[in-house]
Amino acid sequence: MRTAVISDLHLGLGSGGDLARRESFRELLLAELEDVDRLVLLGDVLELRDRPLTEVLEACAPALAGIGEAFAERELVIVPGNHDHHLIEPWLERRGLDGSPSLGLEQSGSPEGTAFETVAELAAPAKPRFAYPGLWLREDVYATHGHYLDRFLTVPTIERLGLAMVERVLGLPSGGQDPLAPPDERSTHDVEEYERVQTPVYAFLYELAQATARGRRRDASPSTRIWQMLGGGDTPSARLRGWLLGSVAVPGAVGVANRLGLGPVRSDLSAAAIAEAGFEAMAEVAERLAIGARHLIFGHTHRRGTARVQGPTRLLNTGSWVHAPGLLGSTAAESTYWPGSICVVDEAGEPELRHALDGLSRDELGADPPM
Question: What is the pLDDT of residues 186-229, one digit of tens each?
């Protein structure tokens, strides 16, 4: 069986940067999937933090229908992430009420009476199922969205600081680890603990989006706007703004966060530092959850990456299908945030990335975004 893994479509994104919602890009995507038997949408399939759920579903209905038609006779699996965690929340709550066993590395199903059921209907004639928080593609290949890494991220994102606040309320040390504990006494985690800490943050951000006035266009989340400003720009004023933010505002905020016990986070927000932080945090998750896979595929950070080894586990980031001009270089060769990557997993061998949009220019990526 050949499996294709795609992460971070963010269908319904307020900025219109969700490329798979445009028919021309969706055709390029589906053409790359003609030879696969199973498609795994590895988290953040929907963007549920920009605007109300009904508006998102209306906007992304054609994209879901196109994918569903293409996979009518093939397997389609959806793995909820942090931006579409709402798809799985009613099911998680029901499990708790029913006294179901503790969550493991893979749960699967197709819950009725939830937003996921509506998504499944929009994707007809395909019959998608969900897997959460990830799934085993082979006995040595595990795939998950990667949102659990936020507990260990040293980049001061909105979610990283929010999770630290929840940990303080619950009486947990930052990252679930006693900072005074020696290395040989590092604690292990289970999936239930991650959900207990992270679900309140996701639910809060989702409810904020539900209060957004219909039709109001939001260009980016607060975290994304910060990273775009840090990237500077083409004008002197944009470069000055980026310098001021990077050298004054962010370091000051980082210092406050660390003093309040919401860290440890760092003020180094260079591209290299952000990339390093994401891989280090994901390696920490792999160790704490004892995943034990030879290959661990994840998304979440939008930074596609060639495979990298952390201990016994080979990490591979799928990148995204989101056009974020503030994070791009002039060409695909100059940018690890260039969208359009697909991870292909065969029955044997190492998972590999295909880059479906590398032949396009910056202008072609940004042409005529939908509202």
Answer: 456 789 999 999 999 999 989 988 887 655 555 555 555 444 44
b/e burial code for range 85-96 (CB count within 10 A of at least 16 → b): bbbbbbbbeebe
Q: Is the dihedral of CA 291, 297, 301, 303 positive or negative?
A: positive
Per-residue pLDDT reduced to its tens digit, 64-78: 999 999 999 999 999
Nearest-10 Cα torsion for 214, 219, 222, 224: 140
- 149 Cβ neighbours under 8 A, 6+ residues apart: 278, 281, 282, 284, 285, 298, 300, 301
Three-state SS for 155? Answer: coil
| CB-count burial class (<10 Å; 0-12, 13-18, 19+) for 117 | middle
Q: How many CA atoms lie within 13 A of 107 on its CB side?
A: 16
H or E element: which one contains 135? strand 129-138
* Whether residue 133 has a cis bond before it, omega within 30° of 0: yes
Q: Is the distance from CB of 300 to CB of 147 less than 8 angstroms?
A: yes
CA dihedral 323, 252, 261, 285 (to 10 degrees): 30
Number of CB atoms found within 10 A of residue 150's CB: 27
